[in-house]
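Notes, Module 5: Reading structure tokens.

Key idea: the token line is not a picture. It is a compressed description, and you learn to read it the same way you learned to read a sequence, by spotting repeated patterns. We will look at two proteins. The first is printed below with its tokens.
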Amino acid sequence: MGRSPIVGGNWKCNLDKAGVEALVKSLNGMDVAGCEVVIAPVSMHLDKVCSSIKGDIMVAAQNCNVAGAGAFTGEISSEQIVDIGCKWVVLGHSERRAIFGETNEMLAKKLAYALSKGLKVLYCIGESLAEREAGKTLEVCKSQLDPVKDLLDAATVVIAYEPIWAIGTGVTASPEQAQETHKQIREYLATISAPMAEAMRIQYGGSANAANAPTLSACPDIDGFLVGGASLKPEFADIVKAIAAAKK
């Protein structure tokens, strides 16, 4: 049985109340047949989105605390995310790693805790331009996955490969580059567990848009997208449609 496609929409730190209402209204009219869709608003909008989005679109938090509730000013806990109806959380995004200093070890703790509370996780990995040019793409991806290798279960985790040099830059990895890296990631996963590697969904997340989604979707080891800026635009529906059609 093939891997079912999954597209995530990372809204990042965008939209006011009116913008959220307008986007949810648009998404509620979107055809999501044949593709799992997960959207990730900012934390203050999670409750509103969970209560107003249609039932076949899931909602994710963009981050969670390394532990439960308590003296962690500015954080949100997995328990609180679950309590308002969210099923997913995004962890390891390059912006969290680079701007907020989240380490592989910290993210391993976050992943373990989130999974223990019943959340599913979009787990992000990816290399910088300097690392790619130095031929270290797979080395970097492995270093980010090694600390969580015992937590990788295709039923609860989706890996989002996001080449940092392609996030928000308008530069996209070519289908050949993306497929090569996705294939290498899957081959690495197979050294942990062949069945897990075959079942694991791996998203591409580097300036995915309506124009490049069809060719990227045709790659056998690309199982979906984690979309940034385009998830706020009407073309998000075209991205979902492209991967759903390619993976029928």
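Here is the second protein, with the sequence above and the tokens below, as before.
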Amino acid sequence: MDCLEQKDTEATAPSVIERYYTRWFRADMKGKPCEDHCILQHSNRLCVVTLAETHPILQNGRAIKSIDYKISNCCSRLNNKVSGKSKRGGQFLTDFAPLCRITCTDETEYTIYSCIRGRLLEVNESILETPTLLLEKPSTEGYIAVILPKFEESKTITENLLSREEFESVVSKRAVAQSQPS
């Protein structure tokens, strides 16, 4: 194989995310326009919560001021501790459970939700020290949290989520609606 063919093969090789994860989306979370979330579902049932590329935090060159996993006075996602094979002790989350609050430098605050039911396994503490990871690599090192759905519910958790095609349709309809004068 010559060098040119080898470069073409490397350029088209899928990433780990594309190979092993299925992308699901939740558009307009809790009725807030454009606040879209992305769920990366692995074949082993693990789900990684990330921001969709259309989320306002990732638009218009915004900068992140702070990320807070403390949801209320008595509930902090940082206190989540799991142990053992069955991941005992993890906080159980509903579809609309808040995971964290992100404040941008322009003082806009966004709440990131779990989007699926399951046990919280881990929150990404590295984005607390390096918030730019969330902006630069939202699907990999800038993830928000890892959630494990119940085994019985693992097939049905995607019922309320959108596939890539459905999500792109929603985004294109949104763009058309925004471009039309009211």
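Summary for the second protein:
- The mean pLDDT is 86.
- The chain is about 20% helix and 30% strand.
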